[in-house]
Structure formats: structure tokens, C-alpha cells
User: Which sequence fits this backbone?
């Protein structure tokens, strides 16, 4: 069975400092992985996705993630946090069969301090 | 721009009522999903459908049913609403297959309160 674990429920950084949101996955085959962001009272927005192409994936708003099969990790990073990055972030793995089910992590709340 | 539209942003219903949550997509996507979102639990899959009149249970189907009579519309039904179904409900759709189009589009959600 597939699963994802987000290692931190809450991360706090200062504006202008790097962001690291950690995600480990479990999958019996090569997974498709995603990061979604949800700002307060807003819908889910796709940040980036990995679908077995380049292991370093660049997304929107300066975010990127690296797929590391040996570590079963897909951590999200950004070199310099902005106040507008404060939101909840979800790491997601997909069933790559026809069902296409998404399995979500529990979420990480990112706080950005001025 | 592609869209998944959920009919209500906020909904308040009484215990025991039958509740319909509607989701419509305009992208001709085959797969559609209903999730509920609760703090600390992320999103959990209730039901999904990969074709008209086809449905599959997700991880937490108890107390819910679904209907997909047309490709663009996927309805979530709470047969007899209970307070533990107070939650945010999110609908999503996706196109079959991989590659660049392998993506999901989410609606903006319906926040349901059962009193």
C-alpha cells in the first residue's frame, strides 16, 4: 500500500531564510509524487509534481523538490521564504493505475515570521 | 482555464437531513474524486469514479454515497447527516494517463456544518 508521512506538522521560519518541508513516502513501485499548497480559506494549488522524469523538480513560486529513491523522500525546499508562503502544504502520492487515487500526507503548516 | 465547480461554499444542515454536494467539471475528465479534509488528518478519500455510472469506495465511505449519471457531474450524498460529518469537502478531477497532463484539478471546497 502507498502512504506518505510528513515529518513536521508545523514549521516556522523567518522571512528570507530557507524553507525545508520533509516528506517520506512508501510505495511498492515507482510513484508519482506531488506537493500541493493551501492558503487560508482557499482551494488546493499544485506546486509541483514528479512523474519519473528528472529527479529535481521545479515548481511555482521558487519551490523545488528532489525525488530520492534510496531515501524514499520527496522534500520541498525554497531558498528564501516570503511572507506569502505562509500556508498549509501537502505531500501527495498517486496510484499510477487507472484509478488515479491521491493519498495525502497529514499536512505541514508553514509559518513565516517577519 | 479548466474548472471544477462545487455548488456551495458553505452549507449548514440539520442532523438526519439528506445532503447533496454537487461537483461539476468542464474538462471532459474521466476520473472524479470526493475527499474530506479535517485538521491534522490531511485529505481522505471518500469515493471516486473513473467513468459514468462507475464508482469505487475510498478509505472512508461509511455514511456516504455518490452518483455519476453524466461525465461532468459527480455528486456526494450524505444519506442522514450526522455531526461527525462536519468537515470541508473537496472534489477533484483528472484526466486518464501519464505525461504532462497527469494532473488533478480541485474545486474550492464546501464547508459543511451539521448541527
Assistant:
Amino acid at each position: 500500500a502507498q502512504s506518505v508521512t510528513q515529518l513536521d506538522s508545523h514549521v516556522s521560519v523567518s522571512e528570507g531564510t530557507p524553507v525545508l518541508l520533509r516528506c517520506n513516502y512508501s510505495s511498492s513501485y515507482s510513484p508519482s509524487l506531488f506537493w500541493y499548497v493551501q492558503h487560508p480559506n482557499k482551494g488546493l494549488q499544485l506546486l509541483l509534481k514528479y512523474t519519473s522524469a528528472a529527479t529535481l523538480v521545479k515548481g511555482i513560486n521558487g519551490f523545488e523538490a528532489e525525488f530520492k529513491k534510496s531515501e524514499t523522500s520527496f522534500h520541498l525546499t525554497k531558498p528564501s521564504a516570503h511572507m506569502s508562503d505562509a500556508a498549509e502544504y501537502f505531500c501527495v502520492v498517486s496510484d499510477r493505475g487507472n484509478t488515479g487515487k491521491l493519498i495525502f500526507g497529514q499536512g505541514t503548516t508553514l509559518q513565516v515570521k517577519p | 482555464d479548466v474548472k471544477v465547480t462545487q455548488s456551495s461554499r458553505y452549507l449548514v444542515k440539520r442532523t438526519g437531513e439528506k445532503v447533496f454536494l454537487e461537483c461539476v467539471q468542464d474538462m471532459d475528465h474521466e476520473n472524479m474524486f470526493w475527499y474530506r479534509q479535517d485538521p491534522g488528518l490531511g485529505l481522505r478519500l471518500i469515493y471516486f469514479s473513473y467513468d459514468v455510472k462507475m464508482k469505487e469506495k475510498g478509505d472512508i465511505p461509511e455514511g456516504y454515497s455518490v452518483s455519476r449519471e453524466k461525465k461532468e457531474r459527480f455528486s456526494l450524498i450524505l444519506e442522514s447527516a450526522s455531526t461527525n460529518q462536519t468537515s470541508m469537502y473537496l472534489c477533484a478531477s483528472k484526466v486518464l494517463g501519464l505525461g504532462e497532463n497527469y494532473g488533478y484539478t480541485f474545486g474550492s471546497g464546501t464547508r459543511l456544518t451539521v448541527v
